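fyi for ur records
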Amino acid sequence: MEESFLKYIEDSIKKNWERPALTDFKGATSSYKDVARKIEKLHLLFEHCGIRRGDKIALCSRNTSNWGIAFLATLSYGAVAVPILNEFKPDNIHHIVNHSEARLLFAGDVVWENLDETAMSELDGVIRIEDYSLRFSRKKQLTEARAKLNELFGKKFPERFRPEDVHYEYDKPEELALINYTSGTTSSSKGVMLPYRSLWTNLKFALSVFGLTPGEQIVSMLPMAHMYGLAFEFIYEFASGMHVHFLSRTPSPKIIADAFAEVKPDLIITVPLVIEKIIKKKVFPTIEKTHMKILMNIPLINNKIKDTIREKVIDAFGGKFKELIIGGAALNKEVEHFLKSIRFPYTVGYGMTECGPLLSYDGWETFRQGSCGKAVPRVQLRIDSPDQQNTVGEIMAKGDCVMLGYYKNPEATNAALDADGWLHTGDMGIIDAEGYLFIRGRCKNMILSANGQNIYPEEIEDKLNNMPYVSESLVIEKESKLIALVYPDFDTVNAENLTDEKLTEAMTENLKELNNQLPAYSQVSSFRLYNEEFEKTPKRSIKRYLYQ
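which gave:
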């Protein structure tokens, strides 16, 4: 038999029946048995309102246990899940529900407040994610089935519901599992069609590498409507018999710190922004005191101090994790250099929604600084350039993880997947002699200088973001000149009572220092200050197109 993704889910439920599975942070906990029971009830609901295999079911809310359960119920029923980011604007959510032809929508309270059911005329009904009650129904069968759900469940399992009652129809590798929309804007929203082989290969990889065991714990803080969070903060853990704690609120550094302290996770999966904030605010200020700097330069004392700092940083993340995995965007070079210097157990991976998501990774002991690891099993990577070790080119990927294409969008599919099955990632990079992948930027962000040099704005921003009073920055091109847009670190500015005039002086100084570090062709000519943070995607990377 070909290996099945759903078999992993079914086996984990049976093996871990009494263990805690999912907890809403500061809220209720469901055991694997509770999850199986709720899945069964949702199956009865789907069946009675005429949902067939292959029908689409959309989910839109913050991360919660019930989101995870509804997702598993959808897949194990044979329907296709359509996860939608709860940060999307109402128009975008309406568009995705309609475009995907979803028949049911699971919606959270916060999302539902702004939605309009008349704008989603093809839906049979909307289910409240908090308790699976009906928000509204256009089908008599759905209304009736929901009203007598407990009775239907009692009829189906007259004795009691046992592990041997759990059996799902197994999936086939090419069968469609979910459609994940990469952005919510109507013009460019592309629904990535991921088959079961993509979920299976990502899960199989995680099971063979991360080595976590039943009962171990994780804090889920990335949106599950995004493949990175879904695959590695939920699916893998559930299939391993672990205990997942969902941060059901927006993950501010304070909430994350509280959750780490309380849960003490065994693995941490996150995006650079979270790490950078914790390290820049909590760790760097202590090291930057003069006496610390002097001690750091005396070899014997230096190692002792580094060990102490390492312990402090590890404690800030709960003190118990085996590895901290970063993905979703580039890690700031200064922060990475610091983590490497104290032998912190971190690693950086690379992937994209179209691959469900992982393409490259390496364990922290052997991980090469500045890279994104090596191609994972069942994936081939190559660089579209004459010399992939030295000449930057587009990163191309092929393997079990690659999508079927974009839903109802053959043009976009043909642009992304070539005749030989290679996926054009849109990212630029090189692969060294040992197979380590180094990313240089996005194709579409690359700026071509007047003398034909390639400029990667991300590399300039990385330097600028380490300068005094800079929180984040964007480098754009206007009339053949490079301009830096800067959102200042207002916490520090206010703490030091800097006037606008002094802030401008400091930024002018930064610009001078920045250009000293850059080749002539990528010098930045001026800067503009912004009073508000730049708008971000759910992965916490800046929406560059809004500022071009």
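The chain is about 35% helix and 25% strand. thats all i got for now
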